[in-house]
Amino acid sequence: MRSVRSRLFGMLVIFIILPYFLSVFIIYDNTRSSVEEHEIEKSREELEEGSRALQRYFDEMIELSYSLYNDPDVLSVFENGLNDEQRKPFERSMKIFSISRPEVRQMRIYFEKDSSALSVYQSKFSAPKKQEDYVNQAPFRTLYESDDNFFIERPHVIENANNAAILPESDRTRVLTIHHKVSNVLSGEFLGFISMDIDVNAYSSLILNLSDGGESRLTLLDGEDRIMYSSQRINDGESGDEGDKLVLEEKLKGNLEGWRLVKVIDRDVLFRDVNQAATTNILLGIGVVLLGIIMVVVISHIITKPIENLSEKVRSIGGENMDVDFTTSRKDELGHLEDHMDEMMDRINQHIDREYKLEIESRKNQFRALRSQVNPHFLFNALQTIGAVALRSGAKDVYKLITSLSKMMRYSLHADQWVIVQEELDYIETYLSLQRERFGAGVQADIQVDEEVRAASIPSMLLQPLVENYFKHSYEEGYDEATLSITGERVGGSILFTVQNTGASITEEDLGRIRSAVYGGPSGQDGGIGLKNIYDRLRLNFKENASFQLDTLEGRGFRIIMKLPFMEDKQEGGNSDESTDRR
Prior knowledge:
This protein is of the alpha+beta class. The chain contains 17 helices and 18 strands. A hairpin with a 2-residue loop joins strand 15 and strand 16.
């Protein structure tokens, strides 16, 4: 049987726990997708904007070299070599350039005309030095042989290219170098190189603005996938394997064709807020589950405990305990139920009491009806009057007979009482003595009753009607030789009385009719009133514990066998219905 508690737990799981955690999972998954889509869209826009900014900046820096050597004073030096006359205009132009572009930490200039090179560091000039093999050095040889006019070298720590004293050793600035090949526009003659060391910070700020406070990594890669800048430390080999990370890239164009700006977002960082929200919701869910479990336990205790008590009370009713107390102080539905059951039990008990009283009254009525058939009140009163007249007339024998008869009548007044067998036998002896006065001393009656049986209690007037039948159906019908026999013995817990006479007998047909009248028909039908009276009294007093049998001794007389429970002291503790009714 499934208990209320298990049902409540099932409902808690089905209607609260599962829907809640399912909604948390769905919301979490949808939020992740939404956050990722939003981040992708935002990052692409930022990458596009950042890429355009980088393109503009590098375009500007690349074009800057062209504007520099297009300066007549600078171009003249490239074409004619650096002499004293051109030195001052050249240095003035270079100082102006340095001041205007402070992110250019150092410039190196190679003049093919005289195979010399110098460097400019913060408006300071180094002395020109002969650099006969300058063109053959990397990366100038590549640039010299290339159709391109510039080459961008990957970032590095600033180098003192000419070993000049103008560059302090403490300067460890990371720079990106743009090498320009200077040629005569008209003749195409190679004039030299201009290399500008640009502070990486000058363009890194354009990238860092896209890094979301440093949580995402921005990497600028050139056409050969070399790292030109990264917002986080990274090795070259690590740029292509980002694992469970979101990788977005934007290709640059123009002078930076083939370069890529790559943004790498750690998904743990990207979904950190989402994960925190999900964790919070799960913790709240666990809290709800715990509260739900507590609620189920409390509710089941509040509901099931009274139900168990009520069930125990109902089971006790099944055990014939009709005094179950259903009173309760509860004011809820269970309290109303117990109140209704208490009212129901009161009605049931009242009904049982009424039926029980009706049964008692019915039995009393039956006793009254039977007693009315044997009540000799009026005869007793008449005999008392006759006895008084006989005594006044001097007829003592008559008075004696009337007195005996009066005793019999007195005894018959107690027909509804319990008497001991000896009293019943005394009454029968008195009755026989009267009948002997009537029919003579030849009346043959033999009474053999055990002493133990004589002390037993029986309903009064149980044997006397049988003796009366003996005289009625024998002597009165001319059977003067008929004998009467009364025996009584104890058989186990019962008394067995046998009353038989050898007078007139009856046919089997008559015996059947009498049996029907005695055992089933209403009192007084088809004769046998006395037998019916005895049988009904046995049934009323002993129910199925008594038996009453009739037979004809095979046509040689009539016999009644009565079996009834052996009872002692019934007169003292006896049947209240009979003992109290003494009219």
